[in-house]
Amino acid sequence: MSKNNIKTSGFSLAKRKELTGDDFYEVKQLDDMTIAVVCDGVGSAQEGALAAKKVTLHLINNFKNLPKAWSIEKAIKEFITSINSILYAQSIQEYERPEYATTVTVCVIKGNRLYGANAGDSRIYLLRDNKLNQLSYDHNEDGMANVLSNAVGISENVEIFYFENNIQKDDKILLCSDGLYSLMSNDTLSKNIPNGAYQMVKKASSLVEDNLPDDTTAVVLEILETDYIESMKNLNLIIPEKLKKGDIIDGYELTHSLIQNDRTWVCKKNNQEYVIKFAPYEAIENEKILDLYIKEAWNAKRLKAGFFPKSFIPKQRSARYYLMTKLDGITLKQYLKKRNLSIDEAVNLAKTLVSMEEFLLKFNLVHGDIKPENIIVIQRDGKKIFKIIDFGSITEIFSITNKAGTPSYLAPERFTGSAINEKTEIFSIGVTLYEALTGKFPYGEIEPFQNPTFGTPKRAQKLNKNIPSWLDSLILRAITAQEELRYSNYSHLRFELEYPEKVKPFFSENTSLAPAATCRLMSRRRAARSWAICSGSGSIFSPRQPRS
Question: Can you give the pLDDT at residue 178?
Answer without folding.
Answer: 96
